[in-house]
Design brief:
Strand content: 25-35%
Largest sheet: 6 strands, antiparallel
Structural class: alpha+beta
Number of helices: 4
Helix content: 25-40%
Oligomer: single chain
Order of helices and strands: HHEEEEEEHH
Low-confidence stretches: none
Number of strands: 6
Length: 171
């Protein structure tokens, strides 16, 4: 099986590209650049400017955020907030403007991924609004699910912190 045929098969199962026809997938694949990273290398770093979106082909990455651990503003530690695997997208907020990255992505299992520049995707979406509509619609569903998961996780963590206070420190 040729390389592009393998990519088509993988991309057809990626949530970001759900509902796209083969010709539409080919247009997107042609814009991408294949990259690889080893364990403990970073794909993106928190607080850096980002203008690329990434789709994991294989492997796993931990999404980490910097957490202050003392009154010293320079003292920080990393907290893992989720793990992404083959087929998942990261760096998606780059499509919505010039924002700094909200988290880092550290490889925990050798990762191959395809990277897309915001400018290339914007041009494609302007030229082919059918592709742009489908991808952005899929992206909104992905982001909504992530927001709901984050909200649930935050509620659980807050409950763990607050619950002992209401029991007067007794368990």
């Amino acid at each position: 099986m040729r390389f592009q045929e393998k990519m088509l098969k993988k991309f057809a199962s990626v949530a970001l590209f759900k509902g796209l026809e083969e010709e539409q997938l080919r247009r997107i694949i042609d814009l991408g650049e294949i990259c690889e990273k080893e364990v403990d290398q970073y794909i993106v770093l928190e607080k850096t400017l980002g203008n690329k979106l990434f789709v994991l082909i294989d492997g796993s990455v931990e999404i980490e955020v910097l957490m202050p651990v003392s009154r010293d503003p320079d003292s920080k530690t990393k907290e893992s907030i989720t793990r992404l695997n083959g087929g998942d997208v990261l760096g998606e907020l780059a499509l919505f403007g010039d924002h700094r990255r909200s988290a880092s992505a550290r490889v925990v299992k050798h990762a191959s991924y395809i990277t897309f520049s915001k400018d290339d995707l914007d041009s494609l979406f302007e030229e082919r609004q059918d592709i742009g509509y489908r991808v952005m619609s899929n992206l909104s569903s992905i982001l909504a699910a992530r927001i709901m998961n984050t909200t649930t996780s935050l509620k659980n963590k807050m409950s763990q912190l607050i619950h002992p206070l209401f029991l007067g420190g007794k368990h």
